[in-house]
Amino acid sequence: xxxxxxxxxxxxxxxxxxxxxxxxxxxxxxxxxxxxxxxxxxxxxxxxxxxxxxxxxxxxxxxxxxxxxxxxxxxxxxxxxxxxxxxxxxxxxxxxxxxxxxxxxxxxxxxxxxxxxxxxxxxxxxxxxxxxxxxxxxxxxxxxxxxxxxxxxxxxxxxxxxxxxxxxxxxxxxxxxxxxxxxxxxxxxxxxxxxxxxxxxxxxxxxxxxxxxxxxxxxxxxxxxxxxxxxxxxxxxxxxxxxxxxxxxxxxxxxxxxxxxxxxxxxxxxxxxxxxxxxxxxxxxxxxxxxxxxxxxxxxxxxxxxxxxxxxxxxxxxxxxxxxxxxxxxxxxxxxxxx
Length: 339
Description:
This protein is α/β, with parallel strands linked by helices. It has one domain. 30% of the residues lie in helices and 19% in strands. It contains 10 helices and 12 strands. The strands form 3 sheets. Strands 11-10-9-8-7-6-3-12 form an 8-stranded parallel sheet. Strands 1-2 form a two-stranded antiparallel sheet. β8, α5 (151-165) and β9 form a beta-alpha-beta unit. α5 (151-165) runs parallel beside α7. The radius of gyration is 20 Å and the shape is globular.
């Protein structure tokens, strides 16, 4: 299905009025960790009513208005800095949920900029107590192997983390690392050392079986992110990270969002949960990978701005590029890069 075409409007900038798109759903962000590093900037932009985003492929700026924004989907490995703003988000009438990537790659040093695992687990519990277990999604993402980091070792680490956080969430989302697909990922992993690699077909099956068993024991759902492989035999489905069902649930089945997420005629359909469960006919974001099931959203992050500096990350070219961008004063800037 076609992706949404956002309503257009105009926003007042220091240089005068400019055209802008006005999306109902904001993704913050697939490209960087806004909660960890740019929470204050993000709240400043919400108060200002707009943000300036630069297309990474053609470098053209686009202004994004928040006048119609009803939902923000946060992606983070350390949302602790966002906690202080949760009450303000509620006051602004903005619904939100958080995708919290909580991996254990400390021994390998694959995520050099994240806080210690214990601190992240405590943040996970604190956030869940604040917003509820359905609005915090645990991601162990991506799964990556090396000579020492076997499938069995990965499953042990997932179990260790899950034993501490599974009561604070209702789902575990995972994916398998893509190394061959991204040249900069191959380069960064090679420089790091350790002979990291993707999972083969048998290892995917082994990981899926193990994760499915753990999630059954914990009483939570297991889902994959943007993976074409069918793991239904293990009881594992395909996740929608920008999840139309969850969005409608946390917005009390908002009519404007139903029209956006369900397509033409949505206002004539029964409310969520009264027509046989979650609707399968949802509008898909065609700007994402083919296997991605996400509903449409407007992402406001930028590549080369995440100081977590995860070695396997496709969104950073190098640590040098990140330092160049985040070294700028961005708090009062229209853009996350200060440009």
